[in-house]
Design brief:
With 280 residues, this protein is α+β, with helices and mostly antiparallel strands. It has helices at 2-10, 23-33, 72-78, 80-91, 161-168, 199-205, 211-222, 228-249, 252-270, and strands spanning 48-52, 67-71, 93-100, 106-119, 122-129, 134-138, 143-152.
Length: 280
């Protein structure tokens, strides 16, 4: 029976990223094939899940050969980060997470998680970045550690995560035009003016969501703003940079010049600083 089921379901179209329309049929087929037992601890009278051996985010498919039955505890042990992300979303609790960007740089983030969903063949977490004061998206596979706090939050009633991604998603490694201000649809109490003040960097990278801007903001918040001369420089930057940023945003040549000759060297130096343990 198991062999026949595998052959039967190979004919179904494979979907990368989102679950296929016949997912429920596949799930039941896997449970039946595994005799409704956890393949790891052999438990039978527990809540069962269908687990992807090779994760979708790593190129795995929904083929039955890539699916096994696991009980809830065994499944959670395979996905500790995802388990706590889902838990925090369900309970509306703020999380503290360690996040690694594409260059291997890690940083601490305080997030109000809104939703986990698939978009453009990858799983993404959409949530409110408390430190930056704006809605952002993250790759769960880059989350190295999650701590669910006791602090609860309220999700904006009219906010839709998929709409946000369609307007703000940037293909990794490529620059895109400045996204529409989806934050304008979010009540002002969810905002902070600090998130809008990296004028020149945002204009040069074409989006406020570039990972390089994260590093520059962390340098501003954890080093510059803790010193008198640093605060003076930041205030001066805020006063003088808007017209410069406007000029840069209108020229692709200036964008590239500022990125490569000015911002990129600074970012490379900043990556060598351990902001977490930095004492100045």
């Amino acid at each position: 029976m198991g062999v026949k089921l595998l052959v039967k379901y190979r004919s179904f179209r494979e979907y990368d990223g989102s679950y296929p329309p016949d997912w429920e049929r596949r799930r039941k087929a896997v449970l039946k094939r595994d005799n409704y037992r956890c393949r790891e601890c052999r438990a039978k009278n527990k809540k069962l899940h269908v687990h992807h051996i090779v994760p979708i985010s790593d190129g795995g498919s929904h083929d039955l050969r890539n699916l096994i039955t696991l009980c809830q505890s065994c499944h959670n042990s395979r996905h500790p980060v995802k388990y706590y992300l889902k838990k925090s979303i369900k309970e509306r609790k703020t999380i503290l997470m360690t996040y690694e960007n594409k260059d291997g740089y890690t940083s601490k983030k305080k997030i109000n998680p809104y939703k986990l969903l698939f978009y453009r063949n990858m799983q993404l977490l959409v949530g409110w970045d408390i430190d930056r004061g704006e809605v952002r998206y993250f790759r769960p596979k880059r989350v190295k550690y999650v701590d669910v706090t006791s602090k609860t939050f309220s999700k904006p009633p009219n906010f839709d995560s998929m709409t946000y991604l369609k307007k703000n998603f940037r293909i990794p490694g490529k620059l895109s035009p400045p996204p529409n201000a989806i934050q304008n649809k979010v009540p002002s109490r969810y905002h902070s003016s600090e998130s809008k003040k990296c004028f020149i960097a945002t204009a040069s990278y074409g989006t406020p969501h570039a990972e390089e801007i994260d590093i520059l903001r962390e340098f501003r918040d954890k080093i510059l703003k803790k010193r008198k001369i640093g605060k003076w420089w930041v205030d001066l930057y805020y006063k003088c940079s808007p017209p410069i940023a406007k000029l840069i945003s209108e020229s692709e040549v200036l964008k590239s010049l500022v990125r490569e000759c000015f911002l990129s060297p600074i970012v490379k130096i900043m990556k060598k600083i351990d902001f977490k343990n930095y004492s100045g």
